[in-house]
Amino acid sequence: MIKTPHLSADGIIKLYDKNENYQGLILIQRLNPPHGLALPGGFVDIGESVEDALVREMKEEVNLDVEIESLLGIYSDPKRDPRFHTATAVYVCKAYCTPRSGDDAKEVFIYKDDELPFDKLVFDHEKILKDYLSVL
Amino acid sequence: MIKTPHLSADGIIKLYDKNENYQGLILIQRLNPPHGLALPGGFVDIGESVEDALVREMKEEVNLDVEIESLLGIYSDPKRDPRFHTATAVYVCKAYCTPRSGDDAKEVFIYKDDELPFDKLVFDHEKILKDYLSVL
């Protein structure tokens, strides 16, 4: 029986208004442990591609239809998730309209790039967002 | 109980001799089904990062110490592996010296980029290698 780490997908969502004005990045207040702020994301289902999982999770958690722009990376440090070993594929994506919380997202926030609350982020999302900002 | 696709790591190994002359890309003849030519790779263990799994598998299958250069992508089409749903992280890497088969690799081959035997490749490795060549 082959056992591998759990696989998830997380989104760095760049939110724009209808006039293409950049509004900021989306973070959620998690409903389930670990509690804190996080990028929206979730586990990949068997029978679903990672990209499809990302699009589905963004719809479920923040009610946004996202367009994937690029794969930022895979984060798989065995200690990054306090629950069990999870490897996550992080995608940079774009969305319009207003996010609304659902599923595991208790609340949704929009942050300007230079106002990101790094000390309130769970998992390794501080590292992920710093990696993202460093390659902008 | 959360179930997600199996996670593996595959390597596109650019082989060089000691004088930095490019020799070609490495493919293996698989010992286990599905039989055919493939990129070297294998499953990620729980407690191991994807990059560590890649380095370990390259050592086990073709006896090379690889240096990872970049992440080409994640391939996760549910039908890409005939056994079960596997998502694979594909890394471009560099190695020196002579490969030697081991583990799941029955035999090792070195192919020039313009002589790759696309019709003999298993899984979605034809697509992966074409993606790699298209971004060179």
Q: Main sheet of chain A, how many strands, which sense, barrel?
A: 7 strands, mixed
CATH class descriptor name of chain A? Alpha Beta
SS-based structural class of chain A?
alpha+beta
Number of domains of chain A: 1
Q: Quick check: average pLDDT of chain A?
A: 96
Architecture of chain A, CATH level 2?
Answer: Alpha-Beta Complex
Shape of chain A: globular
Quick recap of the structure?
Chain A has 136 residues and is an alpha+beta fold. Helices cover 17% and strands 38% of the residues of chain A.
Notable traits:
homodimer; 136 residues; alpha+beta; Nucleoside Triphosphate Pyrophosphohydrolase; 2 helices
Describe the structure.
- 2 copies of one chain form a homodimer.
- Chain A has helices spanning 50-62, 125-134, and strands at 6-16, 22-30, 37-38, 41-43, 67-75, 86-96, 105-111.
- The longest helix of chain A is centred in the middle third of the chain and has 13 residues, at 50-62.
- In chain A, strands 1, 2, 3, 4, 5, 6 and 7 form a 7-stranded mixed β-sheet that branches.
- The model of chain A has no long low-confidence stretch (mean pLDDT 96).
- Chain A contains 2 helices and 7 strands.
- The radius of gyration of chain A is 14 Å and the shape is globular.
- Chain A has 136 residues and is an alpha+beta fold.
- The relative contact order of chain A is 0.29.
- Chain A binds chain B through residues 2-8, 43-51, 71, 73-74, 76-78, 85, 87, 89, and chain B through 2-8, 43-51, 71, 73-74, 76-78, 85, 87, 89.
